[in-house]
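Encode chain A's predicted structure.
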Amino acid sequence: HLVDEVIGAVIVVDQGTKKAVDHPEFGQAAEQLGDRLSIHNQPNLGGSGGYSRVMYEALKNTDCEQILFMDDDIRIEPDSILRALALSRFAKTPILVGGQMLNLQEPSHLHVMGEVVNRSNFMWTNAPFTEYDHDFAKYPLNDDEERSAMLHRRIDVDYNGWWMCMIPRQVAEELGQPLPLFIKWDDADYGLRAGEHGYGTVTMPGTAIWHMAWSDKDDAIDWQAYFHLRNRLVVSALHWDAPIRGLLLSSAKATLKHILCLEYSTVAIQNRAIADFLAGPEHIFSILESALPEIRALRMEYPDARVLPGATSLPAPSGRTRMHKPPVSLPAIALRLMRGVLHQLRKENPDHHQRPQLNVPTQDARWFLLSKVDGVTVTTADGRGVVFRQRDRAKMFALLRASFRAHLHLARRYSRMRRAYREALPVLASKQKWETVLFDESSVDA
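Encoded structure for chain A:
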């Protein structure tokens, strides 16, 4: 009842093919909200397109003082809304108030306590004095353990994920819309932008939602890997003044790891990510809707992207299952890496593309094991199927050459792209530009 009293409007942006209004329980939920509920159908413009529409409608058609962004696949604890609102109202100056993220499949696990962007390589990471995946069942709040004591500290963050983030109206009016990034990094950009305008972000302990953890998704290697890298580059160009060396090294290391793990489709789409970033800010807006289907089509050219129903759709593996302990010491890592690289340089055995050598669960699909095989099935992170990864020396060299060229172009042109993206920011975040996408009459039912 208390939560119901503070909600002025519920804005639902439906970008799916199965519409929310067709759900059997929709009528019951809608009845309680009455005319506060508005549904807006639009093409799939990703999270940023959905949140941009929410912000647009909230500023235009309501007088709300706070806009609360929430994912559509969360389980909410309603009191969290009241706690976030109380902190927002009592803050001396406007602040963004974010909720923490609990693991939907392991409800006692606090998956994200608070996050920052590492300024040495421009990658998001956990904030100082926090950890990922704190287990309250093992280490409760009143525990004497150091990791439990951390839970009582104030957490300074650069941004909060948009699984739950309250943005004051004043901030939204001053900063403008989210960037047209589809998914990934739009929340980090907004937090960094707010910080540059003097508005802090607080991740508030005791305010949280439950959401699927990253460990249950393949988002570092599937189609999302394209958006991870492209948008990291866009946001870094806007908010980062350090030399690009750290980011380049981090990206090159990831590329080598993907190659050793036979994740060729990931390298292919990340090469495309760099090219799309270098094509400039106008290009980023123009491919908002088309990028995803194109990336999915590009991935399907590689066997590691094609999901099979199970390992039983292939002949039984020729190799034996053994324990493979990860190398820990530097000499051991160097030796395993050398062996893996030498194997990559040999011609692959085509027999292993018909019959895999190993069946490997996701958690065991590591470079030190996969770099020594020519054919391996790997379970997808969600457990719904397997992919048959196949080593192909010719493909590997082609991808490595393309990756080297892409990184070289990036190193040479990054300073120029910094200037281009910073000059374009007012347009990228403008209501007027977003209106051309959100209200394209041919594709929208508002």
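The radius of gyration is 23 Å.
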